[in-house]
Write a structure and sequence with these properties.
about 40% helix; 14-stranded mixed sheet; seven-stranded mixed sheet
Length: about 1400
Amino acid sequence: MAGSSPGTSVSAPSLSGERSGARDACPSPCNRGCAPLECTFELPKSFYIFVKQYRVDYLMVMPLDRDGSLSEGSGFELSLSNFVRTISTSSQVEDVRIQNELGDASQRTFRALTEYMKTIPSLKSLHLEYIISSRLSVSDAEAIFSTFGPHSTLQTGGVTFEYNEPTKAATVKVLVDALLQNQVLRQFKLRYSGATSRLARTEDAGYEGSVMRELNRYLQSPTNVLTELGMCKVDDDEVIQLADTLGLNKKLQRLWIERGDNSSHREGIGRIGEALRTNTVLEELGLDGNTGVGVEEMEALVGALVPDAASGLQPNTHLHTLSFMFGALEGREGMEQLATLLRSNTSLLHLDLSYLTILERNSENVFENVEMLFTALRFNTSLESLNLECCSGVGGKDVLGMIMDMLLHNRSLRKINLEDTGLNEDGDGEVVYAELRGRDKTIDQELEKAIRNMEHVPPNSARVFLCGDPEAGKTTLCKKWMAIPPLSACGTKSGEIDDDHSQLSSTGTNKNRMGFFIPKRWRNKFSKSSKPSKSTPSSSVLELALSSSAHDLDPLSSIEERTRGIEVHKMVWEDMNISVWDLAGQEEYHTFHDMVLPNRSTIGDCCFYFIVCNPRRVVQHLNKQVQMKQLEEEIYYWLVFIASNTRRSKSYLPHVTILMTHHDLWRAKNDDLWSEEKVFTQKMKHIIQGLRNKFKLFLEFDMDLEFIAMDNTSASFGDAMKLKQHVLQYLKKMSKSLPKTLKASVDFQSTIMKWSEDSSREPFVEWDVFSHFLFQEVLCFGSLKDVGNELLEKIKKHVAVSLHNGGHIMYFDEIDMVILNPHWFCQNIIGHILFHCSKLNDKYAIAANGIISQQDFKKLVLDGETIYKGRFKEILMIMTKLQICYEDGAEMIMIPSLLDGNPIPTNWEEVFVSTAKTFNYLGSKLNTADESITKLTRGFFPRLQVYLRNKFLTETYRLYSNSNPSRLFCKGISLIVDGVQLFILLDKEGSINIISRCCGGGDSRNRDVHKRIMEYVNDLRQTPTLGCPGVVFEEHIIFPSSLANALDANKLRCVSKKRLLEKVLRDGDLKYAPSWVDEEGKSTSISAKVLLGDEEWLDTLERRRQKVMDMDKVLDSKLPARNSDAPAASEPSNSDLVRKDSMKRFIADEFDSLKRLIHHNHEEVMKRLDELENNIMDFQEKLTSRVCSNIDNLMECLLQLNNSNIPKLPYIMESAGMSGKRILLKMVPGLKSYQLQFMCEHKGGFHIVQNQPGCEVEIGNDQTRLFGIVMYWGLTISVMLLKVGAHLTAGMGSMVPDLTREFATILDTPGLLDLAQPRGDILECLPKELKNEPHISLQDNEEAKAWLVQILGKKCPPGGIQRMFKLTQMVYTSNSNQKGRGIAWVCDKHRDKGEQDGSLRRM
């Protein structure tokens, strides 16, 4: 083989990519300095070979992991001769993949390599990729494909033909002939491109066969081993030919079809669907391309994958993966068919809808399509993964709620890919990911299957939460509810309230009230203060209770008598078991409140929230605005609290009713129109209506009812009865819509109630005890003996979770205990501890700065109760597992929520002792995305402190001594992890700041640790019990230079990461460098590349590269289509295509190479990242030139303007008299004067002409539509330039600073704008005359052009265009490098340059 002498001494590359120039260096990548021909280096078992066009004498060799993916950081280069010598001595090579480059030289190297593969005895698998069949002669093809011929020993193989080149049937014939003679191959993969273009059909016309005809020869052969087939850009006839053999095929497992024709009559996919009825092998089917699946085709496909109406059997149960990409589904009808499939199919495991056109932002009915998709998925029981990558229409709070609601019903989905969707851009994707991460831990498919086969009933339990500040009347309401007899005892019909019967009779009994365990300390107090004598009738008991509750609300009443922690009372309302959770109003208790809200359930919660307020003082002092403001802030606080602690939803939003108590004390004495009550009511309704609008996507409110007023001090039950019916009506409705619960859970509720009433029973038990009772008491468990102990235990825990969600018990996965009496734990333990250890008990507080001795803590918990003897450790363990406290050494206990000292230090050296002089700083600020609606609640950060401490102690990383409280701060925690010094700080806005530093060149290590901390914070945030599931973080990057000298979180300067990525990805500004001003007024800037770091910057560049390549693909499809009647000479030359494809391949190769190098050589990575940026920017410039050179084809409406002797690139600016010059994005109501401007039309790139005077345009009422059309032309040009990243060079950066935000949805949508139909964001910019009739006809364009010509005729005398617009009409000469000749209005700079080089001449 030429050029492959194994004895040739060639400079060997090092593992870092550098080559030595020594002649006697080792000719392999081992770097041991061994002599030539004596090296024992062996190639890996599996590797990739890249044959480069630009360096054909060298090969890039990259090892493969076991899963077939590229192994990071281990690629190396070898000369062809060294590769041949090395492989000749390697005995373990089993799997080789060879990727070809464009160019004749690389083709020759490619052929030589395939020839040599035949000599490797250990080789078992060979794949050849990116073969250009048009460049292969028959002899070349025979030589290459003989590798798979009769003498081959390969077990698996594959061939991929170049996507952008039509595959020749003659070449495929050679391949098929070779395969037909092979008796050894077990699997073979093939991907080819069809000849759908006119040029390709002409070139292949000399051969009578077709690619599919040749493939069918092989598919019908008994020796066929084709397991994977990809058909790209094929016509419908080829799909039909394949369908004819697919039904009985026994080998093909994966099939990918991309049709390239646009014929109106298509039936190929329908025929595939019919074949699937009898096919029993195909596992994966992918449908791609701009040609959609027709309605009839989709019906045939769906018919094979859903149960038959007559037999109930599903024809095909073997297909487990289905893909619809780009334009594969057509409109609403296509989505309806897909929804039908998802509702009924029982075998699909994976659905790929990435890049689906009908799920893009600007597509028609996108919201309805998204809603249809997720509604159908509620009923699916088999799907495990869903890919929605680049479906930009999947975004917004409603869609997030749809997904979260779907996940309540669908228990099989484990993975949803939301990359580059609207949800991911807004940060809401993390909510879904966190939910799915939780399902990974809690959902067991074997368990789900067993549960589906058990009996289910609608939930009959619910929780009612009473929220509000102290002295609001929550406890009084609770006591009234407990004292109310069942409705049947009142002698009223259901739903009716008779105030005359709303008090208990002297002989009535309170059957509604459930007993609960009362500690001795409370029993003694109760017996002294409120126990009636034996002769006291029961009615007196009620009156005493009511009068006592009224006294409790007196502001002078002792704090000892107020609710501590949370009181939990169980009641029976009709056929529903209700638990009322009375949340204490004092702030010290709020750190525990969020742990009991129903945020942990993944199977739905039936609950109701009251925000209880006492407006008595506000009504009495209406002239004091501060009082009304305080009441508004009180309501707002609790709305934020509820929204932050409940999972996102659309159908199951938390229901909130606002209750104003003590109405009997502020009720008007007469019907005076201006009474204090009516004035207050009017003001408060206005305030609440504003809050309802603010929270409408997060919370549900009563229709047409801003608040409810209620008496408190009277003994009447009328208001309480009405409230009870109000709540009950809602809860019954909600219980019917929620997923059903296990009947076993309902059956066990009576046992739980009996336990609660038994004061001698311990209020908590070990799980084993609870499990035993559950098995004994619930009949259905007796029939589950055969399922096995492990599965039975899982079912029991599922029942325990259901009982927790209903408020009957408290059960957490984190602890191996079951709290039978929530009231005991929430009030008698947590409430009692927080009271005695906080400022609430300022005289007798036994904790100092959150620290309490174990001895004092034990006394506090036991407090004379003999029932707890010997169980203190279990109680402490429960509190520790719930991150409420931790044992600080052997003698102390730390409760971080009570920590009020130890302020955060002012500089790093106060905490960290280091001799290093230089550090690498890194920082991130996690803000709440909806900061006016959700916030991290008071208890989150103290739990985060415990969580991080325990996390790193468990992972054995170095942590500061847990016996030294100075390392835990009031609003922070400090750690050292893998040598990285860390602070996690909470600032006054409630944002979490993660800042770190590492000495030396530790950027990679610093970022790895930083990323790990971020993941831990996010995981805790989404933890149902311990976190704030309603909160979504928005990340900001802290400027490193602001971290060096300060730790004050309130002084750190940062930039939004979302905005940073927008500038790079949407604007294409790869050199973007945000700046900040320090306290001394000094401005500092830093590049986006440095802020993001090497790895994330590489990922960002790859995403920008994909956007640019997508635009290039769109131009490839649009330009020939618009110019189909043009002569063949106008088409790009083959050499142009080769150069462009070579650049695209080079950029792609650079990404692959950098991914392997990213963690190994920082300096080399930075250098090559710069080169990659420049390559992408060069490609953007070429795209700009393509758009500008073909603007007449892309915007036909501008074509005729050349014939009118006026410039053809108009745009509208705000009036010259307004402050600053900005491109007009919105019509200003009432303003009739605007500024008309024109761009320079140079084909190298359009641009705004600086200091162009322009022309004032007066608009009459009858000209608004014509003006809007011209405005649309200008916006269309601007968006085109934005899409290719040319708006900065076009001079739009300062004139349109927010253009990318205004048109975000359009920029994220593939393709160009539809000039005949403005949509989305751009339609909102246009006058209402266009919004009402948005379709722009050819006649509309003609009239707009005539109007524009008329305006300029009046404003511009001969030569006026040059003076007003600084543009000169020029003609491209034959010396121009531009394709074709034409007329252009260009600026003075381009005019002078063109005249100098001869590319332009004047008209």
